[in-house]
Amino acid sequence: MARKLFGTDGIRGQANAEPMTAETALHVGQAAAKRFRRGNHRHRVVIGKDTRLSGYLLEPALTAGFISMGMDVILVGPMPTPAVAMLTRSLRADLGVMLSASHNPYQDNGIKLFGPDGYKLSDDMEAAIERDVASDLSADLAPAAELGRAKRLDDAQGRYTEFVKQTFPRGLRLDGLKIVVDCANGAAYKVAPEVLWELGADTVPLAIAPDGFNINRKCGSTATEYMREQVVAHGAHFGLALDGDADRVIIADEKGAIVDGDQVMALIAADWHRRGQLRGGGLVATVMSNLGLERHLAGLGLALARTSVGDRYVVEHMRARGYNVGGEQSGHIILGDYGTTGDGLIAALQVLAVLVEANRPTSEVCRVFAPLPQVLRNARVNGAAPLADARVKTAIAAGEDRLAGKGRLLIRPSGTEPVIRVMAEGDEESVVAAVVEEIVGALEAAGARAGAPR
């Protein structure tokens, strides 16, 4: 059965329209409860959310679904996605749920599900839940005497704060560092400034006044301009921008220059390798990570394993092959020693630990390698198979020949739009740009031919 509900990161859509309706959320809660009721113990589920207005719609609907199936619900309110994963394990819960659409605007929302181990569910389990959502679950409802209960966990923020602080090396503090932290008006608007302040930093918090509508609006990890400006304006040593559910982070140095996920992974991997903490002989990243990262790691005797785009694929590869560092160029950083999913705050603390010990400017410490010129363009296409067009194949082959030994070419259809993404990188920027231009031109011409009247 083709999946209609679940995508690459749970269920996502516009709030109060399918599949992000109260009715579907109720059924998702019931279907997930059916799959995770195991044994005779009191079953429990942890539900967290970000700060979107629609959280008030979806949270009670999910709660009703779980209670109707005999599961107790623990509500933690606005909390980062990694906090929900951590609390699911800490509370010995059978299931965890995060209501968030990550870096998307407030109009969207999503449902992310975690198993009792704190990891996102497998494709097979998501498919099974989706089948159950479409089925009649009335026979599985709990008798009146066995309905679940709901309670709010008042100290959820404190628990996560202590958990995050424990990932920072003992004996180190952030005294003397001025840090700008952009919380995206999202799930970490309380906890992120608190953690940094408790570790000794002079904090400049931004985007900490959520109103249900302003999450990710001109702030956060996908709109870093204001954060970068404030770093310079305040003479700060370091800046970080989280996304709406705080599983992603983008860092800025004291000059306001961006430090992307590739540089962060390189820095952490090298530091952990020096300490004997790195496992797997390298790190895991996606096909989008810069070739400069791969070359840098090779110089250290470390490997770069690449996966498809998406943090869940990175995590799957890390678990299967024994790696403990992985992530994406976009700022999802997964540190297996501390968590089961991306955690922007923990990743930032690992960088800050290196910064404190080095006692040098962020611009020096975080410029780990020189990235190769990289060009990414989207070719808007019509028709079913532009990649099968003979002229497109010729352009791709010619591009691969030009980059042979000096770069790489990546071409992948978008899963959500009628576009094909063309990315090339190499030692010479002019060559990279020309290769992408030629392939995009061939793809768009093929799309035009396919869409022309016959």
Secondary-structure blueprint:
Elements: E1 6-7, E2 10-14, H1 22-36, E3 44-49, H2 55-68, E4 72-78, H3 81-90, E5 95-99, E6 108-114, H4 123-133, E7 150-152, H5 156-165, E8 178-182, H6 191-198, E9 202-206, H7 225-233, E10 238-242, E11 249-252, E12 258-259, H8 261-275, E13 282-286, H9 291-299, E14 303-307, H10 311-321, E15 325-327, E16 333-335, H11 344-358, H12 362-365, E17 374-380, H13 390-403, E18 407-413, E19 419-426, H14 429-451
Parallel strand pairs: 3-4, 3-5, 4-7, 8-9, 8-10, 13-14
Antiparallel strand pairs: 1-2, 2-6, 5-6, 10-11, 11-12, 15-16, 17-19, 18-19
Helix pairs in contact: 1-2, 1-4, 5-6, 8-11, 13-14
- Proportion of beta-strand residues: 15-25%
* Unreliable segments of 5+ consecutive residues: none
Q: Main beta sheet: strand number and arrangement?
A: 7 strands, mixed
Structural class: alpha/beta
Radius of gyration: 23 Å
The CATH topology of the largest domain corresponds to: Alpha-D-Glucose-1,6-Bisphosphate, Chain A, domain 3
Please identify the top-level CATH class of the largest domain: Alpha Beta
Number of domains: 4
Task: Categorize the overall geometry.
Answer: globular
Give the helix proportion (percent range).
25-40%
Largest sheet, order of strands side by side? 1-2-6-5-3-4-7
Count every beta strand, where a strand is a DSSP E run of 2 or more residues: 19
User: Can you give the mean pLDDT?
Assistant: 94
Instruction: Assign the CATH architecture of the largest domain.
Output: 3-Layer(aba) Sandwich
User: Could you name the CATH homologous superfamily of the largest domain?
Assistant: Alpha-D-Glucose-1,6-Bisphosphate, subunit A, domain 3
The helix tally amounts to: 14
Distance between the termini: 34 Å
